[in-house]
Amino acid sequence: MRGPAIDERYFDKLAQTVIDGQEEECLRVIHEGLNNGMDPLEAVEKGLAKGINKVGNDFAEEIVFLPELVMAADVMKAGMKILDEKIKAEGKERKSLGKIVIGTVKGDIHDIGKSVVAAVLQANGFDVIDLGMDVEPDAFIQTVVDNDADCLGMSTLLTLTLSVMGETIKKMEEKGLREKVKVIVGGCPVTQEFGDEVGADAVGFDSKDGLTKVSELLSV
Ligand code: B12
């Protein structure tokens, strides 16, 4: 028997499972899609991310409330877990193009976007050390030093925690690390203007843009 076509309608169906907070159905759609040739990154960007963005907009407009938002985020994370492994597996056989430390800054627990970026970098041949969320400036710096990393990637979705990015870059300068280590920042409140202001080398607006810019920064 032929499986479903993996097209825009299929990705909309996946997005809808996030909107509805239906974890079981989300995982079923993902497995079915993967068995029928679905690209895992496309599933994240066109399916899961589209769903969470819709819930996010509805949340901002007070059409849905925090419990729905939390449920949708949980479904997204459960789906991401499977897709993340698939995305990473695609890059496993390659030689490392460079080492990058990545994380969400202190005070911020939004880790979905950061994890997508980490997975895409890893899938494309970078060695990625993901520190998770709520990461102190000193923890970023220590990990960069201990692992002799080429690049630091910081994420935040909160306006309130934007300053932590500047704080971390300043500390890197004080320790004489800034010349050796490239810095890329991202997350919805992060503009190019902000990146320039805090002295980042680049701003990544989504995972593909992040990959392009990290590749440019490390000249690969
Ligand atoms: C899901 C979500 C949550 C989940 C998070 C679950 C999790 N584990 O991550 C939960 C429900 C826990 C949550 C909590 C809160 N949230 Co919230 N949340 C969202 C929501 C709806 C979606 C975020 C998301 O995952 N998007 C999908 C991913 C794929 O996209 P992304 O994060 O933008 O990442 C992409 C790019 O930005 C870029 N990128 C991101 N990081 C990086 C890093 C690098 C290096 C690079 C290159 C690229 C890059 O690439 C990514 C992939 O394409 C947004 C609204 C929105 N539409 O963005 C609000 C939002 C971010 N939340 C918001 C708020 C206020 C909160 C809370 C404070 C709510 C509260 N009152 O308690 C708390 C935060 C507590 C804390 N201390 O952190 C506000 C922030 C407002 C602001 N500007 O400060 C938003 C914008 C909602 C709103 N409109 O009000 N939230």
The gyration radius over C-alpha positions equals 18 Å
The DSSP helix count reads: 9
Q: Kindly identify the CATH topology of the largest domain.
A: Rossmann fold
Please tally the β strands and state the result.
5
Helix content: 55-70%
How would you write the strand order of the largest sheet? Answer: 2-1-3-4-5
Which blocks of ≥5 consecutive residues have pLDDT under 50?
Answer: none
* Element pattern in H and E: HHHHEHEHEHEHEH
Protein described:
This protein is of the alpha/beta class and 220 residues long. 57% of the residues lie in helices and 10% in strands. The termini are far apart. The longest helix is centred in the middle third of the chain and has 26 residues, at 66-91. It folds into two domains: 8-91, Methyltransferase, Methionine Synthase (B12-binding Domains), Chain A, domain 1 (Orthogonal Bundle), CATH 1.10.1240; 99-217, Rossmann fold (3-Layer(aba) Sandwich), CATH 3.40.50. The relative contact order is 0.11. Strands 2-1-3-4-5 form a five-stranded parallel sheet, sandwiched between helices. The chain has helices at 8-19, 23-35, 40-60, 66-91, 112-123, 137-147, 162-174, 192-198, 207-217; strands at residues 99-104, 127-130, 151-155, 182-186, 202-204. The structure holds cobalamin. Cobalamin binds next to helix 3, helix 4, helix 5, strand 3 and strand 4.
